[in-house]
Design goal:
With 331 residues, the protein is of the alpha/beta class. It is 33% helix and 15% strand. It has 11 helices and 12 strands. It has helices at residues 18-27, 63-71, 89-95, 107-121, 124-132, 158-168, 194-200, 220-224, 243-251, 282-288, 304-323, and strands at 6-10, 30-34, 52-55, 76-79, 98-100, 150-154, 173-177, 190-191, 203-206, 230-234, 255-260, 293-295. It starts with 5 loop residues before the first strand and ends in an 8-residue tail after the last helix. The relative contact order is 0.14.
C-alpha cells in the first residue's frame, strides 16, 4: 500500500520558482499547490486541507496566524529563507507546529556584499548619473582601493566567512567579530571585540540574524564609536540599523558611504513593481537620494543556484519532518 502524498501549499511563489517547485515536488513525491499571495489573515483560509505550508520572508507569521494555521490542520511550516525572524518560533513550538528554514551556498550574498563595497568605494552611482546626461568629468569621483583599507566583518557564520575568504584576495586587513570562535576564518582575519572592530575599521559589513540583541545595533551611540567617514554595508536585515541614525550619520558625514540591500519596513515595497504607486516611506526616499548611498531591492540572495536550493529546502524540509521525523534545518 502506497503512502498518500503530503499536501503542501506554497505562498509567495515567483515565476522563476515555478519550474523548480514542480521538479522538487515530483522528486520528493509531494502534492504542491503554488500561490503568489503572501500568507496573512486574508489568505490563511486557503491552508485548509494542507499538512505543510512554505513561505518566503514577506509573510509575517505571528501567534494569531499560527493559531489559524493549526486550526486549518497545518502541522509543518517551512521558510525558504535562511533568516526566520518573520516567524514567532516560540509560539509555533508551543502549538506543536514544526518549523524549518532553508540553506544555500553563501557565495550569492557574499559576492553581492563585495560588489556593494566596490560600488561605493569607486563612486559608481554618481558616475552613472553623470553619464546619463553626457557628463564624463572626473571631479568628485576619485575612489579608494580595498587593499588600502581595514574591513570589519560583524558575524562570521557561513555568509560572513565567505565574505572574509573573498576579501582576503584583495589584500586588505580584515577584522572579524563573532560570539563564538571561527577557526576556519582565523587564517584570513583577526578576531577582535566589537568595540575594537568599530574603532579600527574603514568599512564594516554586517552578517547577523535579527534578534532582540541585534536590532538597531547600528545606532547613534555605536556610530560614535566608529571612524569618521566609515563605510557601512548591510545585506542581512534592515532592522539591524536604526534608519534615523543612518540619516543623521550621512548628513553629518560621520558615514562616508552606505550600501543597503535591505531596509526596515521593506515588506510592502520590495520584490514588486511600484512604478505607479505612491510609496509612503520617507526615510527610504530621503536616504536613497544621497550620492554616497547605494540601495538595492533585497536581491543579494537572488542567483540561479540559491533559488534552486531555497525551493528544494522548502519542500524537502516539510517532507522529511513528516516522513523521517526530522530535518537538518528544523528550528
Amino acid at each position: 500500500m502506497t503512502q498518500d502524498k503530503i499536501k503542501i501549499l506554497a505562498f509567495e511563489v515567483r515565476n522563476d520558482e515555478e519550474k523548480i517547485f514542480r521538479e522538487a515536488a515530483q522528486s520528493l513525491s509531494a502534492d504542491v499547490t503554488l500561490l503568489t499571495d503572501i500568507l496573512d489573515e486574508n489568505t490563511v483560509q486557503k491552508c485548509h486541507g494542507y499538512t505543510g505550508v512554505t513561505i518566503l520572508g514577506m509573510s509575517r507569521i505571528n501567534r494569531k496566524l499560527l493559531q489559524q494555521l493549526k486550526q486549518a490542520g497545518v502541522r509543518y511550516l517551512s521558510t525558504r529563507t535562511i533568516g526566520y525572524n518573520h516567524i514567532d518560533i516560540a509560539a509555533a513550538k508551543e502549538m506543536g507546529i514544526r518549523i524549518s528554514n532553508a540553506e544555500y551556498a553563501p557565495e550569492s550574498v557574499a559576492d553581492f556584499t563585495i560588489m556593494l563595497m566596490l560600488l561605493v568605494l569607486r563612486k559608481y552611482k554618481p558616475a552613472v548619473y553623470r553619464q546619463n546626461v553626457n557628463d564624463y568629468s572626473l571631479d568628485g569621483l576619485r575612489g579608494r582601493t580595498l587593499k588600502s583599507l581595514t574591513v570589519g566583518v560583524v558575524g562570521a557564520g557561513q555568509i560572513g566567512q565567505a565574505v572574509i575568504r573573498s576579501l582576503s584576495g584583495f589584500g586588505c586587513h580584515i577584522l572579524a567579530y563573532n560570539r563564538s570562535p571561527r577557526r576556519n576564518a582565523e587564517v584570513y582575519a583577526d578576531f577582535v571585540s566589537l568595540e575594537d572592530l568599530y574603532a579600527l575599521s574603514d568599512i564594516i559589513t554586517f552578517h547577523l540574524p535579527l534578534t532582540d540583541a541585534t536590532k538597531y545595533m547600528v545606532n547613534e551611540k555605536s556610530l560614535q564609536a566608529m571612524k569618521d567617514g566609515v563605510i557601512l554595508i548591510n545585506t542581512a536585515r534592515g532592522e539591524l540599523m536604526d534608519r534615523r541614525a543612518l540619516i543623521h550619520g550621512v548628513e553629518s558625514q560621520k558615514i562616508g558611504a552606505l550600501a543597503l540591500d535591505v531596509f526596515e519596513d521593506e515588506r510592502s515595497i520590495y520584490h514588486e513593481s511600484r512604478i505607479n504607486d505612491i510609496i509612503a516611506n520617507r526615510d527610504m526616499a530621503y536616504l536613497r537620494q544621497f550620492p554616497n548611498v547605494a540601495m538595492t531591492q533585497h536581491m543579494a540572495f537572488y542567483t540561479e543556484s540559491a533559488i534552486a536550493e531555497m525551493v528544494s529546502c522548502g519542500i524537502q524540509g516539510i517532507v522529511e519532518m513528516h516522513t523521517a521525523g526530522h530535518w537538518k534545518k528544523e528550528l
